[in-house]
């Protein structure tokens, strides 16, 4: 807050000056000075960043959440508690379809949650639309041509997308 003593004629030493109450909190919060210290926790980072990812069958996905306060953690897969009281959890996808992964963190100040809607499908179905077709071949071919690594396109899991991956998708397409 800027204070201009020339325009008002009041200085910090004058009796008319007083510190605004929102600047003079007797017990400032370590998170935000001048605010109550019992703010609800909040999520500061999470992974995966995409809330609607697609994963191939038999692939493993790590999930993680970071909060600004210590919390008790719970992970849910399709509503079932995974009994994991940590801010990280991973899952190997063994069935095709839509899955809901939810994280809930809670403490005496409140709770936070985040949800992912995960589609799992055949490793050859790049866009998880239920078909292995020209679109899937094009997705792999685009990764080869641009040199941009696409984990879903790396069928043989050798950390590069190559013609072999395209052949694998082509051989399984309709």
Sum this structure up briefly.
The protein is of the alpha+beta class. Helices cover 15% and strands 30% of the residues.
Outline the structure in words.
The chain is an alpha+beta fold and 174 residues long. It has two domains: 39-121, Sandwich (Immunoglobulin-like), CATH 2.60.40; 125-174, Dockerin domain (Type 1 dockerin domain, Orthogonal Bundle), CATH 1.10.1330. Helices cover 15% and strands 30% of the residues. The protein contains three helices and eight strands; from the N terminus they run H-E-E-E-E-E-E-E-E-H-H. It has helices at 5-8, 134-146, 163-171; strands at 43-47, 54-56, 60-67, 72-77, 80-81, 88-92, 97-107, 110-121. A five-stranded mixed sheet has the order 2-8-7-4-5, with no helix packed on it. Strands 1-3-6 form a three-stranded antiparallel sheet, with no helix packed on it. A hairpin with a 2-residue loop joins strand 7 and strand 8 (110-121). Helix 2 (134-146) packs antiparallel against helix 3. The N and C termini lie far apart (67 Å).
Provide a count of the helices. 3
**Spatial order of the strands forming the largest sheet:** 2-8-7-4-5
Low-confidence stretches: 1-29
- The overall pLDDT average reads 81
Residues in β-strands, percent: 25-35%
The CATH superfamily of the largest domain is: Immunoglobulins
CATH architecture of the largest domain: Sandwich
Helix-strand makeup class: alpha+beta
Q: How large is the radius of gyration?
A: 26 Å
User: What is the number of E strands?
Assistant: 8
Give me the strand/helix succession.
HEEEEEEEEHH
